[in-house]
Design a protein that fits this description.
Helices cover 36% and strands 15% of the residues. With 370 residues, the chain is an alpha/beta fold. It has two domains: 6-46 and 272-368, Aspartate Aminotransferase, domain 1 (Alpha-Beta Complex), CATH 3.90.1150.10; 50-269, Aspartate Aminotransferase, domain 2 (3-Layer(aba) Sandwich), CATH 3.40.640.10. Helix 3 packs parallel to helix 9 (258-267), helix 4 (93-104) crosses helix 8 (241-250) and helix 10 packs parallel to helix 13 (356-368). The model has no long low-confidence stretch (mean pLDDT 96). Bound molecules: pyridoxal-5'-phosphate.
């Protein structure tokens, strides 16, 4: 049997949040009673403008799309105040993460990320024979905030890529602009990746404008969250044109289909959908915090600026997999920290913010556990 390269001898795969269909079937719970809180999707569904644009564009499916998704690049550039050579589009942000790994980190060199973090960062690094460095000591276990000094100290001469996720996943913690600048300025020989997948839920404009200033920065955003298009697969990166040129060179040629391009363009005009979504998340983030005050075996890590938060299990008699399974039986899907995030071990769960009735299901489910 042919063997793949050494990085792939024992590959590890992404563990997605469970689907509502799966849980409904396995536990015999009506699908409408399932609280799906493990994938950070949009409770309001897809942007209506994007859905309409996709429907209207079905007649173009026999045509190859622009290989660089140029009309979407133009629209993104105009919306965020850049020129289109500063934009790259991907089949989700995830695809752009793979391009960054290949284009900016030679095999064997280091890619730095906070521990815990979005697992794709280290899974891609390992699969491509690059060395992921998870800086666990930069994460304060009480607040789950990142200590920027410790994170900066970890950067070495062969660190090619440095990740910042803001708001962070899985904690939702937030770094101020001065902190983000400090990391970028401390890594002049690395490409700093500022992943703003969840930025809408911070209720700020984020730091995309820093891409005007720093040549070693790429800012990433996704259409999977506030625009509700996780199933369409659209993400983008903004950086200096030379960074984008390198990424284009390793990009699968027609990575964006006709429907992704038109859907993305339409979604960028759907301010109403984004506004409604952000309002729901912010209100219910506050609401669920008040409900957690009733629980003594679980602690919500407060200060999330995102559409999820961490729950710490204070009761040493029970671990995260037992809580995860117990919630599933009660129709509540979350993420088991010990399975989904390296370095979280068995004391944490990541739970999405969603409609109030689902927040109630989560808290009632936790209260009901033996
Ligand atoms: C921090 C972070 N970045 C990127 C992504 C992926 O986004 P996309 O759906 O655009 O690939 C996710 C998805 O959950 C994420 O949590």
């Amino acid at each position: 049997m042919l063997r793949s390269h050494p990085g792939l001898q024992a590959p590890e795969y992404y563990v997605p949040g469970l689907s509502a269909d799966h849980v409904s079937e396995r536990y015999g719970i009506p699908i409408e009673e399932i609280a799906k809180l493990g994938s950070a999707e949009n409770p309001h569904g897809a942007s209506p403008l994007a859905k309409q644009a996709v429907k209207e564009h079905l007649e173009a499916l026999h045509l190859y799309p622009s290989w660089t998704a140029d009309s979407l690049r133009q629209k993104i550039a105009a919306k965020y105040g850049f020129e289109y050579p500063q934009v790259i589009c991907g089949s989700g942000e995830t695809e752009i993460l793979s391009l960054i790994t290949r284009a900016f980190c030679p095999p064997g060199d280091k890619i730095q990320m906070p521990g815990p973090c979005f697992p794709i960062y280290h899974l891609f690094a390992e699969a491509e024979g690059r060395l992921p460095v998870l800086v666990h000591e930069a994460t304060d276990r009480q607040s789950m905030a990142i200590d920027v000094d410790t994170y900066i100290e970890a950067i070495q001469s062969d660190t090619r890529v440095v990740y910042i996720t803001n708001p962070h996943s899985p904690s939702g913690t937030w770094l101020e602009e001065s902190e983000v600048r400090r990391i970028i300025e401390s890594a002049p020989n690395s490409l700093v990746v500022l992943d703003e997948a969840y930025v809408h839920y911070s209720n700020t404009a984020g730091y995309i404008s820093l891409a005007h200033e720093y040549e070693n920065l790429v800012v990433l955003r996704t259409f999977s969250k506030a625009f509700g298009l996780a199933g369409l697969r659209i993400g983008f990166g903004i950086a200096h044109p030379q960074i984008i040129e390198s990424l284009l060179a390793v990009k699968p040629t027609w990575n964006m289909g006709q429907l992704q391009i038109v859907g993305g363009i339409a979604a960028l005009d759907d301010d109403q959908h984004v506004e409604t979504t952000v309002k729901t998340i912010m209100n219910n983030r506050d609401y669920v915090q008040t409900r957690f005050d009733d629980l003594d075996r679980f602690r919500m890590i407060s200060n999330s600026h995102s559409n999820f938060f961490l729950v710490e299990i204070l009761d040493s008699e029970i671990n995260s997999t037992e809580v995860f399974e117990g919630l599933l039986e009660r129709g509540v899907v979350v993420k088991d920290g010990s399975v989904s995030f390296r370095g979280l071990e068995d004391r944490f769960l990541r739970c999405d913010v969603n409609f109030q009735q689902h927040m109630d299901r989560l808290v009632d489910g936790l209260a009901d556990l033996p």
